[in-house]
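As a warm-up, study this chain.
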Amino acid sequence: MNASTFRNRAVTVISFDLDDTLWDVDEVMTEATRVQHEWLAVHRPKVVEEFSPRDLFAFKQSLIKQRPILRHRISELRLCALREAQIAAGYSADQAESGAREAFEVVLEARHQVTYFEHALEVLAALAENYTLVALSNGNADISRLEIGRFFHSAVRAEQFDTSKPDPVLFRAALTPTGASPEQCVHVGDHPEHDVRGAHDSGLHSVWFNPDARPWPGGPAPSEEISKLDQLPAAISAIERGLH
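Now compare it with the structure written out below.
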């Protein structure tokens, strides 16, 4: 598609949520938790004696109560939890700092070992030929570490802005590097509030990815709904037709 045709499209940008939209995040984080526990068992065994994986999760949640801003800083939250858990288990501050960073890198590597949902790669490749793709996530996945990174123009993560979807700040930040207006963008995501409401509150169109056929919980409905990713191109086209 030539540049003039692209500029004349009603929709020029598609933003994507990542976790539970392009892969199953529970599956990914279960494995990340396992490798974290294994690393701690070898390198910081007193932590494993003191904390089960469930205890560490509860400990991490307690840090959010103490510092609510950590809710938006996923990476910093895990680092803090790893550091403070080691200190609580009797390790020195230096040991806790180095151990937290080493363990975090192990977790981060596992966090990027994703299994894409069916059709994700081919749909992204096809859409990238005609649209500018942007990643917009409340999580800490880094698309530059993923196979799909080559399809994306840019990415925005909640932890970069100390706020989370559905805050319009993030949607505006995602659009800024593209130069597109909100009405030229479709946001794709699985979460009714974070993705659909957030998109609509920011002036974007939305596609709700709903593979489990959940009933719509109420509020302004998505522009389009899909149950499989290979339905996305048709949903985008339907939105475009409605704008002419």
